[in-house]
Amino acid sequence: MSHPRSLGRLLTNLTHWFGPAMARPRTLEALRAGLGAGLALALSGLLLLAVPDTSASHGVSGFLLIAPLGASAFLLFAVPNSPLAQPWSALAGNTVSALVAVSAVLSGLPEIPAIGVAIGGSVLAMALLRAMHPPGAAVALATVLGAPMVHDLGYRFVLTPVLLDTALLVALAIAWNRLTGRKYPFRQPSDSNPHGTRDRPANQRLGLPAEALADILQRYRLSANIGTEDFGRLLAEAEAEAARLRFDGLTCADIMSRDLATVRPDTALSEVADLFRRHRFKTLPVTGPEGELLGIITQNDLIQRAQGEALAHHAPFGAALAQLLARRRDTPALARDIMSPPGETVLPEQGIGILVRLLADGGKQAAPVLDNGKLTGIVTRSDLLEALARIPLWSPA
């Protein structure tokens, strides 16, 4: 008789080895994926039924859904960030697998050897094409098991139904994922600099380049699990989280400017320019009567408006700027005409780690601090740099 403690340890080990390896998905995400996959397959089937196949051989039409498409639908709708689910993987993977399997069937091999050749050949072909797509192996198996239809259709089976079905599903997956807020096809590495120079973006200069990230994924044989860009995003988020933990205890309220110069939406741009000159600010908040934040004006907003006026009136930039800021204009330009949306804001009690991401790069010069929906302070890049300079960054926490 087993000892209860030994039995409990065995059950614990079994749960550890064979239990769920994934976190529970969010309910809305599961509904989004399930609804999308179901609708896409149903719509694909209806579209195929509506198309008359005038080239049908012996009454056998290629306009039909094939079973492996269900597995493709799972990947494209449930895990659209996976490299296995990308359009190239799905289209090339399913198609080349069908091509290998049709060749095995038409070669006259018996069914069992043909299955081995089709599956093994499809996996090898997908790997060589960098189009790993697990349902491709199912396509190969289904092709051999459906040998009578393959004999009737020949290599046309590769185009219809396999390629046609997959193309329909990919098109519907792109539409559905974008409609429901998912990025598909997934993000690709981009070294473009928002300032138009050849330098890598500032938030990437201390991180690993895309080539190094891809090499790490290849080294650990994980390139089929996550894309290079998403891997970089995960690392960056982990670094940002580490920064938030490192600076925990120092809040936005501790370093923000409280004595603010603000303007109203109906403030003339001449007054806005005076405030920029007087205080040497780069950013001015636009607030409402109750202190609510309505927008942000930067010095660049003034410059861009003046450039637009110069182009519209074929005038020199200096003259256009002077005219824009003239106090005696009949219809003076106002703050509301050039202000931008506030963008992302922070709370007074949030740690300054969040500011590293907000102010590290891009056009954001300052982060507004809101308390109960009202502007209570602002943190500029200078404020953040001053705070970071006073922290022994690499000392033990």
UniProtKB/TrEMBL annotation:
The organism encoding this protein is Hyphomonas hirschiana VP5
Q: For the CBS domain, which residue ranges apply?
A: 256-313, 339-395
Q: Which UniProt keywords apply?
A: CBS domain, Membrane, Transmembrane, Transmembrane helix
Q: SMART domains of this UniProt entry? A: CBS
Can you tell me which residues the record assigns to a coiled coil?
A: none
Q: Which CDD domains match?
A: CBS_pair_HPP_assoc
Transmembrane segments annotated in the record for this chain = 33-51, 63-82, 88-107, 114-133, 153-176
Answer yes or no on keyword Transmembrane helix: yes
Q: Which InterPro entries match?
A: CBS_dom (IPR000644), CBS_dom_sf (IPR046342), HPP (IPR007065), TM_HPP (IPR058581)
Q: Which domain of life is it from?
A: Bacteria
Region annotation Disordered: residue ranges?
185-204
Q: Does the keyword Membrane apply?
A: yes
Q: What is this protein called?
A: HPP family/CBS domain-containing protein
